[in-house]
Amino acid sequence: MSTVIFANGILDWEPDPADLVKDADLIIAADGGANHCRKLNITPDILIGDLDSIDPALLADYQRKDVPIHRHPRRKDATDLELALDLAVAKGARKIRLFGVLGGRWDMSMANILLTSADKYKKQQISLLSRDCCMRILHAEIDHLLSGAPGRKVSLVPLTSDAQGVSLTGFEYPLSDHTIPFGSSLGVSNVMTGSTATVRQQKGVLLCIILSE
Right CATH number for 2-131 from 3.40.50.10240, 3.40.50.1950, 3.40.50.1100, 3.40.190.10? Predict the structure, then answer.
């Protein structure tokens, strides 16, 4: 199942709403992410969070329309995005696209990236999208197919530890059973040689950043 989640971060471009929710079986607004949905003329299937960021008039409108609302207390141990991700997984989501999760506050952007790399989401294909890039979380022992164009820059950054047994095909700088040390810049600014490329590692979690240009 494919799920789209709108969070309360920056949506710094004017995307085509039809492209954002294309093939989505479920649309979740994480609290203030509903404000983005309104601007895009999208009604989410579910609203979740402590509801301290959504416009009160929009909340009232959702209540009139009987949009399912999962209200949580403000004092909690998880962000609204984590609640939304957990709900998506519980609903059977396998592919999850996140909007409004990057930019603005560095603490929230970093927390969102690290959150999506958590082991509890390793069975999900998670993408974090913004105007200038698409980020994907790549877990070990999976053949990850990337789509792009010749000349597209791609960076691979270890998130949790050394990424071991890394093999890259379809890149200007290929690797075979190589280690990208945690904290190194070895995987930064590689270049796709065609419209697709593949990444596989035996151990570790990689943050894959595909630049838009």
Answer: 3.40.50.10240
For residues 182 and 163, give the distance between their C-alpha atoms in angstroms, rounded to a whole number: 7
**pLDDT tens digit sequence for 16-26:** 766 778 789 99
> From CA 130, how far away is CA 102, in angstroms rounded?
7
Closest by Cα among 136, 55, 58, 149 to 102: 136
**pLDDT tens readout for residues 70-114:** 999 988 899 999 999 999 999 999 999 999 999 888 899 999 999
Separation between Cα atoms, residue 180 and residue 185, nearest integer Å: 8
